[in-house]
Amino acid sequence: MPLPHGWHAWRPLAPELGPTATHPVVAPLLARCTFPAAGTEVTCAVSGGADSTALLVLAVAAGCTATAVHVDHGLRAGSANEAEVVRRLAATLGVAFRSVTVHVGDGPNLEARARKARYDALPSDVFTGHTADDQAETMLVNLLRGAGRSGLSAMRPGPRRPILALRRTDTDMLCASFGLEVVHDPSNSDPRHLRNRVRHELLPTMQQLAQRDLVPVLTRQADLARDESDLLDELAAALDPTDAKALAAAPTALARRAVRHWISGEHPPDAATVERVLAVARGDATGTDLGGGRRVTRQHQRLFLNHLAQPSASSDPNE
Domain 1-127+162-189 adopts which CATH fold? Predict the structure, then answer.
């Protein structure tokens, strides 16, 4: 089946041996992965790119009982052909396959909306093909967005991201070694998306200035930030965010974190909102609006998170 315009496929000659755990190409890569025990049933999100293709190959080599799931966002004409590439890969590896179609219209925040639609369509324990390069980019993207220590921790390593220690050069090499068909999504070069500009412009410029590969540096910094963030979370958990006196007397870093966890909704609160709540705890204000129909008030040395009544849908002020 021909690939849509803008996609490319390559099929180098495959080696004689298949992708087993003892294969000389596979074994050193598996040693750096965090797949569960052989026989574990896992679901892998497979887009058809080199990273997710390598994820599925390595899951099979690790002895997992894998299912490949492809999500078609329907954003490009002929994008359904990508699912066919993944189906053929699954058939070659002898694993189950299913395809899911979601509808994401073009427009603002396309990348975020597509990601949300994708994860909504996948099981909560799905495995993803994020690599160390993705980790470094995530840290930089979060830095540009003004994230604190939690955001600079980037993605948390764990069983759902089993190839997070690998590099894109590793996944490219693995796919080439076994002659696997790989598709290249042209949207990964679209400068509308911040991550693409970080990948193709910011990070290469930083590496040129530093005169070294910065991915290991950035991933190490993310690990350090995560350890410190986890410690702050543990310490802040002992602080009652509704006790105004205790909150005002606590170290600022812990007070901020306790408040952030307390008032977090669908999205974590920004720094200005947290500071307004701390001002209420100190007695500098009697209350503050959080947005979304929520307000924090202070009475008798206690803070209260109130959910305000939403206005009626009617525009008639006499109703």
Answer: Rossmann fold (3.40.50)
